[in-house]
Specification:
Blueprint lengths: L1 H20 L46 H9 L11 E2 L3 E2 L1 H11 L16 E3 L9 E5 L8 E11 L2 E7 L7 E5 L2 H6 E6 L14
Antiparallel strand pairs: 1-2, 3-8, 4-5, 4-8, 5-6, 6-7
Length: 207
């Protein structure tokens, strides 16, 4: 009798796991199962691992000689690429961190794969000080869950307000440029600066 009970419990657990896997995500980006060949750097470039070896502990990102203007210009060439959950392949589509990963890897810059792994990366900057090339981090689609669940790249911050490029699962369902509107302000977590040098914020005077 005991073996029958044990088998029944195992089958019930398997069914429950299957149902859990089918729940919709509450974040816009998650680690991909695999990385396509298009994301693999050319020989001689900075080493970046496959999906099972993406760096998850990068307090600083080495941007080398790459300029924010170049990064953002390349990101804009991907506008219109469809949103596809857990993808880093431009032929298929991107999720939000898949888009960021692809843009940076185009310049052989190693970055984390998942948006949550950007939580403590870079220097936190006030929105008023945000500049082109800064990362902008948000919660997922449920603002009450405070972990990082979405991200984008600042493309401008002027009198018209801050705008960022991202792969969104919202209305556009694609890579698009979006203003930091009231909806995103509710989900906003922080601005992360990863480019050194001229893009550093002004020092705050102390007495």
């Amino acid at each position: 009798m005991r073996p029958i009970v044990l088998i029944s419990l195992l089958l019930l657990a398997a069914c429950n796991n299957g149902m859990e896997d089918k729940k919709p995500p509450v974040v816009d980006c998650m680690p991909a199962v695999a990385v396509s060949a298009v994301d693999t750097p050319a020989a001689g470039s900075a080493a970046v691992g496959q999906a099972d070896s993406f760096t998850t502990d990068l307090p600083k990102i080495n941007t080398g000689q790459v300029k924010p203007d170049s990064l953002v210009a390349f990101a804009k060439t991907l506008i219109g690429t469809p949103y596809v959950y857990a993808s880093t392949d431009p032929k298929v589509g991107f999720d939000c961190s898949g888009f960021i990963t692809y843009v940076f890897k185009h310049f052989n810059i190693a970055v984390p794969r998942s948006s949550v792994d950007f939580t403590n990366v870079g220097q936190t900057i006030a929105v008023a000080e945000a500049k082109k090339g800064d990362l902008i981090l948000f919660t997922g689609t449920n603002p009450s869950e405070l972990g990082i669940g979405h991200m984008g790249l600042v493309v401008s911050n002027d009198a018209a307000g801050l705008q960022f490029i991202h792969a969104t699962s919202g209305k556009a369902m694609a890579v698009t440029i979006t203003p930091l509107n009231e909806l995103y302000k509710k989900r906003f977590v922080r601005i992360s600066r990863i480019f050194p040098g001229a893009n550093q914020p002004k020092a705050i005077a102390t007495r």
